[in-house]
Amino acid sequence: MTVKISNKIVGYRVKKADPEAAAEHQAPVQAETKPVQMNEHIERPDFLLGTTYKIKPPIGEHAMYITINDILLNEDTDHESRQPYEVFINSKSMEHFQWVIALTRVISAVFRKGGDVTFLVEELRSVYDPNGGYFKKGGVFMPSLVAEIGAVIEKHLKAIGLLESEEMSETTKRILAEKRAEFEASHTTATNDDKASDYPANATMCGKCSTKAVIVMDGCATCLSCGDSKCG
Predict the structure, then answer these.
(1) CB count, 10 Å around CB of 33?
(2) Phi (first) and psi of residue 65, to 5 degrees
(3) Alpha-carbon distance 63 to 131, whole Å?
(4) Cβ burial, residue 78 (10 Å; 0-12/13-18/19+)
(5) Quick check: 108 and 79 in contact, CB under 8 A?
(6) What is the DSSP letter of 229?
(7) How far, CA to CA in Å, does 31 sit from each of 25, 34, 227?
(8) Torsion over CA of 31, 37, 40 and 41, rounded to 10 degrees?
(9) Spatial CA neighbour of 136 closest among 62, 210, 77
(10) Per-residue pLDDT of the chain (232 residues; tens, 9 = 90+)
């Protein structure tokens, strides 16, 4: 506010700066650098962390090797995270070469785009082969080869922490083990072909985890793989 001096000036003195006021006028402290998020403008580094998974679908003559490379963002900070960056699929078989190359390029593009990439799992696992699916080792049903690729990506996303694993409690595991032992003791032994499965020969497929592991005891259908039960 402007003050008009109407009286004669007879003296003066220099006012010392107030420490508290000076602190208020100091330049504000720079905010912490924002963590780098995955986006399509991030250049591919010279080094990526890679994991390779092997699958051997019965519909193919040769095994397929799925390699997923991850990029490490905000390394050595509190915001460090591992994000999928690209995927490659190799096999001796050239039967599926064109669509496999196209699929890997689309998936890699989605990875590099950033954001929530977990939706890919559900999209891939919901692809059904018109000729019918197949059971892989352990009795898990796969509706198509694409669905098994989706299952591999799901496994990888769980391994790097982008998807949560649904772990059963020790009590549930113990109860399922007791039910399995009781069921197998009351039924005939499996044939040689059925021994390839990890579950009883006459088990049926579970609608929740797609594993041939559902048994019926005392009128209650229970899955020995994921614990799903019609009795609650």
Answers:
(1) 9
(2) -115, 115
(3) 20
(4) exposed
(5) no
(6) B
(7) 17, 8, 49
(8) 30
(9) 210
(10) 677 777 777 777 777 767 666 656 665 545 567 888 888 889 999 999 999 999 998 877 889 999 999 999 988 888 889 999 999 999 988 788 899 999 999 999 999 998 999 999 999 999 999 888 888 887 788 999 999 999 999 999 999 999 887 766 677 667 667 766 776 676 655 444 444 457 777 788 787 787 887 877 667 788 877 777 767 5
Tokens of 188: 């005939």
DSSP E strands: which ranges in the chain?
49-55, 64-73, 81-91, 134-136, 140-142, 204-205, 212-217, 220-223
Query: Residues 111, 82: contact at Cβ < 8 Å?
Result: no
